[in-house]
Design brief:
alpha+beta; CNF1/YfiH-like putative cysteine hydrolases; six-stranded mixed beta sheet; five-stranded mixed beta sheet; 21% helix; binds zinc ion
């Protein structure tokens, strides 16, 4: 079972889905469609889950990264086969290669798909609060522009289920957030990270009407999604984007 963004779904050159935690092979506390090998789950179960996602999407390759809350961006161009000796460390992937399914692994952080329907280039970004602080979203838009000639106003974006303003409490926000985030504080110590990402994408040049927000909080919705804050030891759900 997976969710799709209505506006992104209008583009037949793009296949995408935010998979829920259901429909996989992993046992508690990773039940059941866990995509991460690094949370303590049995590798055979994760393999089977990856296979399920790959088959559902219809991908040649399922490409994922060693996410580190940094700003490194993996760029895959036509002609590259994307066979890696080690899983690349990065927090975003950009490609113009069809049938390469880009997957980010999530449990409260945002997965942000950015798609250029004119140039047929897609990015999938892992963006937690550290990603917002380092503005990884703008960095990805700049790379799409510099490396592929994308035009910002053409880009479409979708922000996945993730920690909502109801649950995004940051008691040490004065130390970790820049002052510019203050206007996104919805009540004492609680922040609207969805609005921060929308604002960062708009500053990067995207049109407001081209940005979709799932608006589902993973901590409140841990029956459907994994939530690190809600569960601690748990899995990671997959958000996937692929050019056809
Ligand atoms: Zn919540």
């Amino acid at each position: 079972m997976y969710f799709r963004y209505p506006n992104l779904s209008l583009n037949t050159q793009l296949v995408h889905g935010v998979f829920t935690r259901h429909g996989g092979f992993s046992e508690a506390p990773y039940h059941s469609l866990n995509t991460s090998y690094t949370v303590g789950d049995a590798p055979d179960n994760v393999n089977a889950n990856h296979h399920t996602i790959k088959e559902t999407i219809g991908a040649n390759r399922l490409i994922y990264i060693n996410q580190s809350h940094g700003t490194d961006i993996l760029v895959l161009r036509k002609g590259q086969d994307a066979l890696f000796e080690n899983i690349p460390s990065a927090d975003a992937i950009i490609t113009n290669v069809p049938l390469f399914a880009l997957m980010v692994q999530l449990a409260d952080c945002q997965g942000v798909i950015i798609f250029d329907p004119k140039k047929n280039v897609v990015a999938n970004v892992h963006c937690g609060w550290r990603g917002n602080v380092q503005n990884i979203l703008e960095r990805v838009v700049i790379r799409m522009k510099n490396d592929f000639g994308c035009i910002e106003s053409h880009l479409l974006a979708g922000i996945s289920p993730s920690l909502g303003p109801c649950c995004a409490e940051f008691v040490s926000h004065k130390e970790i957030f820049p002052d510019t985030f203050k206007r996104f504080m919805v009540r004492e110590n609680y922040f609207d990270l969805w609005a921060i990402s929308r604002w960062q994408l708009e500053i990067a040049g995207l049109k407001g009407g081209n940005i979709e927000i799932a608006g589902i909080c993973t901590r409140c919705g841990s029956d459907l999604f994994y939530s690190y804050r809600g569960e601690g030891k748990t899995g990671r759900f997959g958000a996937v984007a692929m050019l056809t």
